[in-house]
Design goal:
This protein is of the alpha/beta class. The strands form two sheets. The protein has a four-stranded parallel β-sheet. The radius of gyration is 25 Å and the shape is globular.
């Protein structure tokens, strides 16, 4: 009788034990996480969650940002969120920061290189250089019936500027005053992309920040539901911002959509005139 053959088999190794590290959230670069400190306290947990969503969608994106150069500088990435969450009545979403270090403030279309709004000949030189801001100012003047939509060139602004600069005119004089007016009316001044990099197409950065904006909008929608009110109105400027309409939950928001203000046609946009004309933003308000 032949001896039976020995049969060898490999016992599979047990799976490694589950640890807390298995569920660890993606690490956020310290330089980006620290910038959240500039936001109002009501936003900080939401912003952390938004960054986690960005990192979960692309684990390399935030590290690439932190290891390179982008605008805005000086930790102003979340400057728009100084507006407290419970004061938000409108969410204005533009495209991205201005492509100049002195101009990019972290607040949608607020150009840090601009101080005075007026000059003796019309809008100041700094305003005229900031195309989006210039066209926004002209749109406000048309809405206020100070400027005819068919005549918005430099000559048409001369008399308006002289009246604005006159003592006791009651007109706002600075970009800071314009921003103050928007904040007073509950605007959260965001961009579809929170950063600008000259070597990256704005739409590409906008796609990377979409999970962040989804988190922000979800927080606003939940807050409105908790208060028994409607969500804030979304004001979407340009194609990149308009793509946010496809995000889950966004149809619940009232919306006002237009071309981006760097287009001359924005000046004549009657929907934007109707929206912003009700706020009297060109009149000075008490600080």
């Amino acid at each position: 009788m032949r001896p039976s053959a020995t049969i060898w088999c490999r016992i599979p190794e047990a799976d490694p034990p589950m640890t807390n590290q298995s569920f660890a959230k993606p690490a956020i670069p310290a330089s980006i996480a620290d910038a959240i400190d500039s936001a109002d306290a009501s936003w900080r947990a939401v912003l952390h969650a938004g960054l986690q969503a960005v990192a979960a969608a692309d684990p390399h994106y935030l590290n690439q940002l932190a290891g390179g150069h982008f605008l805005p500088t000086e930790g102003r990435m979340f400057a728009a969120f100084k507006q407290p969450l419970d004061r938000v009545a409108y969410v204005l979403v533009g495209e991205g920061p201005y492509p100049r270090a002195e101009s990019a403030t972290g607040v949608c279309f607020m150009d840090g290189a601009v101080e005075a709004l007026w000059s003796e000949r019309g809008l100041s030189k700094a305003v005229n250089r900031a195309t989006s801001l210039r066209n926004f100012m002209k749109m406000l003047l048309v809405a206020d019936r100070q400027l005819a939509p068919e005549h918005t060139g430099g000559e048409a602004l001369t008399d308006i500027a002289k009246q604005a600069l006159a003592e006791g005119s009651g007109a706002i004089q600075s970009l800071q005053a314009l921003q103050h007016g928007l904040l007073t009316h509950g605007f959260l001044l965001l961009n579809a992309s929170l950063v600008f990099r000259p070597e990256v197409a704005p739409r590409k950065d906008g796609l990377a920040w979409r999970p962040f904006l989804q988190t922000v909008l979800d927080a606003l929608r939940r807050h409105a539901a908790d208060q028994g009110s409607s969500p804030p109105t979304l004001v979407l400027w340009g194609k990149i911002a308009a793509e946010l309409q496809a995000l889950p939950g966004v149809p619940a928001f009232p919306q006002a959509v237009s071309e981006h203000p760097y287009n001359l046609s924005f000046i004549k946009n009657v929907r934007m005139q109707a929206l912003f004309g009700t706020f009297n933003l060109l009149k000075a308000k008490a600080e």
